TrEMBL record:
Residues 1-48, 141-212 are annotated as: Disordered. This is M23 family metallopeptidase. GO terms for molecular function: metalloendopeptidase activity. Residues 164-203 have a biased composition (Basic and acidic residues). PANTHER family: MUREIN HYDROLASE ACTIVATOR ENVC (PTHR21666:SF270), PEPTIDASE-RELATED (PTHR21666). SUPFAM superfamilies: Duplicated hybrid motif. CDD domains: M23_peptidase. Residues 233-326 form the M23ase beta-sheet core domain. It holds the Pfam family Peptidase_M23.
Length: 337
């Protein structure tokens, strides 16, 4: 008969097999694997070490004291106990106790190791984050420095360009002023040289004829009408020139008259070989008053004597007592008046 005594604490009882169920029990490794979580029952204080011992105790408890006689009456059954693998259950002996203690130590050490590993991971992550932040700050600082340098370079370039532009404009203005001054000086020098050359230009004869004076300007021509002249028209050709300008003989001849002649002022009359008379009027002075002269000889000076409005040489050409156009006559002699 099965015993109704309670099983020891921590020991799982197995139901006794029926009479017909006795036979050889050969559990496999999978069928012998304890349910999840129940293998730790061996860790209770006072527990048994091996699963085989647990099984044996269960059989004894199932048979009970009253069932021993019945079991003796029955034929004995050969029970083969396989060597079950160690599923990590703690044993009852010294080795099992050491194993349990080592397992307990390892189990208790595992959380600390995990915490340390997590702390290390967090520390590494924090260090990585700090490194990234520092790198980003350094990159931003480098970018700011580069931007500041670029702005400074642009400002320096703008200032240099403005200074160069101002210098260029100043140089261009100075060059333009120098050019204008040079042109003005050259023009004035040319005008002065032309005037001097005109004054000093001799009356070169063309063949045997010469211009009556130099550095002149024709002002009144033969035949001009006006109240200034007593006859109502101009009877000669006026060569305006500064007072003192030399007056020359237009051709070879002799001086037949020299002196004051009323409205003509001081006058010299030169008679040429063909009988043509050339009158030189309004003279300031007379160099030759008589005798023969050659073409180009100085016989007097330009003046403003007589009836005049300014210094000039009044030249008349007379043939047979009648006046003729002096300009046409001089040009007919090959002179460029």
């Amino acid at each position: 008969m099965a015993s109704n005594s309670p099983a020891p604490e921590g020991i799982e009882l197995q139901e006794a097999p029926t009479a017909g169920a006795w036979g050889e029990w050969n559990p496999t490794e999978d069928s012998a694997r304890p349910p999840r979580g129940k293998h730790r029952v061996a860790k209770q204080r006072g527990g048994l070490a091996r699963s085989s011992t647990v099984l044996g105790v269960g059989v004894i408890a199932a048979v009970g004291a009253g069932g021993i006689a019945t079991a003796q009456d029955r034929p004995q059954v050969a029970i083969s106990m396989p060597s079950l693998p160690d599923f990590g259950l703690g044993g009852g002996g010294v080795d099992g106790q050491h194993h349990a203690e080592a397992e307990g130590t390892a189990t208790s050490a595992r959380p600390t190791g995990i915490i340390a590993q997590q702390a290390t991971q967090h520390a590494d992550a924090g260090a990585t984050l700090v490194g990234r932040i520092l790198q980003q700050a350094e990159s931003q600082e480098t970018a700011a420095d580069a931007q500041a340098r670029a702005q400074a370079e642009r400002a320096a370039q703008d200032a240099a360009a403005a200074e160069a532009k101002a210098k260029r404009e100043a140089a261009e203005k100075e060059a333009e002023d120098a050019r204008l001054a040079a042109e003005t000086a050259a023009k004035e020098a040319k005008e002065a040289a032309d005037a001097k050359a005109e004054q000093e230009r001799p009356s070169k004869p063309s063949g045997s004829y010469s211009l009556p004076t130099s550095a002149y300007t024709l002002t009144s021509h033969y035949g001009d009408s006006g109240s200034m002249w007593s006859s109502g028209h101009h009877t000669g050709l006026d060569f305006a020139a500064p007072t003192g300008t030399p007056v020359k003989a237009v051709a070879s001849g002799k001086i037949t008259s020299a002196g004051w002649s009323g409205a003509y002022g001081y006058r010299i009359v030169l008679e040429l070989e063909d009988g043509t008379e050339v009158w030189y009027c309004h003279l300031s002075s007379m160099s030759v008053t008589s005798g023969s002269v050659g073409a180009g000889d100085t016989i007097g000076r330009v003046g403003a004597t007589g009836n005049v409005t300014g210094p000039h040489l009044h030249l008349e050409v007379r043939k047979g007592g009648s006046t003729t156009d002096p300009l046409a006559w001089l040009e007919s002699k090959g002179l460029n008046v």
